[in-house]
Amino acid sequence: MTFCASTNPIAYLGATPVFVDSEKESWNMDPELLEEAIKDRIAKNGKKPKAIIPVALYGMPYQIERILEIANRYDIPVIEDAAEGFCSRYDGKVLGTFGRFGILSFNGNKMITTSGGGALICPDKETADKAKWYATQAREGYPYYQHEVVGYNYRLSNISACIGRAQLTVLDEHLAHHRHVQELYCELLKDVKGITMHCNPAPEYDSNFWLCTATLDPDLKIKGQENAYKTIITGAVGGAAGVIHAASRPPPTASPTTTSRLCASASTRPTSRPVRSGSRCTSNPSTATPPPTSTASANPSSKSASVSPPAPTSPMTTSAT
Ligand SMILES: Cc1ncc(COP(=O)(O)O)c(C=O)c1O
User: Fold this and answer.
1) Where are the alpha helices (DSSP H) in the chain?
2) In angstroms, how far is the first alpha carbon of the chain from the final one?
3) Residue with the larger pLDDT of the pair 62 and 301
4) Contact 228, 285 (CB under 8 A)
5) Residue of minimum CA distance from atom 15 in ligand 1
6) Euclidean distance between CA atoms 182 and 245, whole angstroms
7) DSSP per residue, 200-241
8) CB-based pocket (< 6 A), ligand 1
9) Atom number in ligand 1 closest to CA 105
């Protein structure tokens, strides 16, 4: 389960992401499979991964104690992707502060937003200064422009930072709201057979419930689901932001599950203009707005519809080599 934003930076560096599957408790990086993956890399190419990147999928903490124990044993730094897990805690400690670095996202759909951008949690001032130096074109201390390494233009603007400071004043409210919504789902769905809400699996976990999620039993049936995938997939865009490539047919490699079909049908919206990020799989399929007929979602030969592949919206658990 994954989202490409966690692996794109690995690809920018020319490194190869090694995906580690999820465990059932938190839906995040499985520590056992992590160790298997490390051993496999060492056996196959004699090198261990350069970093381990657990992702707080939907805000739920990963098994950080076990991951850190393995990381320390193999001497591999941990970079926490807490983009979705801002203020989630494991054993009382906030995510992003366990590993060598932690990343947070203040994208428009996150717990608080600066309109775009995020934060890097650093272990000390020295590394924070180095990150800021790289993020501001890596300029040497001369009265003229002298650059000796490749720098970046990745800083948060002062205006974005102002928005972020204002957002901090409503952070507690946002956190309370997300937890309230989770409680509502739990309460309202508790007697519905076949639906299991994804809750904190043990007392150490304290999710921010950035996104409330549930599993559906395979034999759960929803009226009309047989044709949902076929008729809607080429017009459905769930949880995406920005401009999306048009697609006229489902990707040939896609092997959608019933659940992803339902997600696709639930998140249908017009795609003729850039779409805002929104809730994933939480709306009722029966009340979802169908795409305008001009996007011809029911017509497989139409070129005007846009698509996101069936299940790309979950973040990933990765380690980089
Ligand atoms: C798990 C995960 N990692 C990384 C990112 C990237 O964050 P940003 O959009 O701030 O670059 C996101 C957000 O979309 C995310 O959900």
Assistant:
1) 8-12, 31-45, 64-74, 125-135, 158-168, 171-189, 228-232, 258-266
2) 19
3) 62
4) yes
5) 83
6) 33
7) -SSTTEE---SS--EEE-TT---TTGGGHHHHHGGGB--S--
8) 3, 5-6, 55, 81, 83-84, 105, 107, 118, 315
9) 10
Closest CA relative to residue 232, chosen from 290, 312, 302, 313: 290
**Residue 91 pLDDT grade (very low, low, confident, very high; cuts 50, 70, 90):** very high
Residue with tokens 């009722």: 284
Pull the structure tokens for residue 226: 């047989």
Per-residue pLDDT tens digits for 125-137: 999 999 999 999 9
Quick one: pLDDT at residue 267?
40
**Measured distance CA(81)–CA(318) in Å, rounded:** 10
**DSSP code of 3?**
-
β-pair type (195-197, 93-94): unpaired
Contacts of 174 (CB under 8 A, 6+ apart): 111, 112
Report the C-alpha gap between 90 and 245 in whole angstroms: 38
The token duo for 4 is 């490409």
Residue 73, C-beta contacts closer than 8 angstroms, at least 6 positions apart: none
Name the token pair of 314: 């979950």
How far is the centre of ligand 1, averaged over its atoms, from the C-alpha of 69 (Å)? 26
Q: pTM above 0.85? A: no
Report the pLDDT value the prediction gives residue 231, as an integer from 0 to 100: 63
Instruction: Ligand 1 pocket test: pick from 57, 58, 105 the residue with the most ligand atoms within 8 Å of its Cβ.
Output: 105
Q: Rg of the chain over CA atoms, in angstroms?
A: 21
